[in-house]
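Quick question, first post here. What does this chain look like in 3D?
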Amino acid sequence: MQVLRPLQGMFTRADYPNLLVGLEVSDDAAVYQINDDVAIVQTIDFFTPIVDDPYTYGAIAAANAMSDVYAMGGEVVLALNIACFPANLPPAVITEILRGGAEKVREAGGVVAGGHTVDDPEPKYGLSVMGIVHPQHVATKAGARPGDVLLLTKPIGTGLITTAAKSDVADATHLQAAIDSMLQLNRIGARLASQFDLKAMTDITGFSLLGHAQEMAEHSGVCLRIHAEQVPLLPGARDYAENWLFPGGSRRNADHFGQWVKASPRISEELLMLFYTPETSGGLLIAVPQGKLAEVEAFLRKKGQRYWIVGEVEAGTGIEVD
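> Answer (accepted):
Ran it through. Tokens below.
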């Protein structure tokens, strides 16, 4: 954020009142109001391959990029490809990456309408995504209130399992479970925001469960209490954690966000580090007011959406893990 500080002063809500969410608040995506009923949600995300199959890589990258729109309560409308490919990469491989991304966007109800590609020795792919949301139903990291219940919609462990797979030590069934999780769209977020007027959501990606939880705590001015044993883990994740197969991002997240996290002494070091491990296309962390919890749970069950109650929101600051 330090490098963005000069820009924050250039694009403020005071000067651009239609900019509902921008650099000043650093949320999952930008939101710009068009009229009384429509606001645009804009985001971009891309990364290097995390799986070998090009089609699957493209689909995961697309799901990951669209997730920020859902975390703001929006629906995906339009996407543009962002691609960096080596000049000697076979055209058939590029086609499969783009096809995987396009079919995932179509699943979301959106359309791919172009993009931009540059030569790069290391492949990278993702999307610039535009969504729409009603201005009164925008979800942000700043909407959590004491008494809210924390729901998580996907298990943790994709970053650890894909790292283990790169070293050829991941069990095939564990990797497939991680892939299935990453391919799942977080579209339920838009429906929760519009139908139940939920105001606090974020998706769990590169800053990890604890990192993104801390962002929600900071922006909302509250404390998030997370019950470690209630956090769902992908099959194999705990085993790989016990063997300390963490990517470098785990330590970077711990070093940065650890100052705001208080963990019970009974939480093992490897489990805590797993909670600091970057996720790819992770689930939504949602703060649900107690008075809406029963109907939200009923709605999620009806839609076949898995979820786990992992904690609650309290007065205070930072993160408590017990």
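The chain has two domains: 2-136, 140-321.
The longest strand covers residues 75-85.
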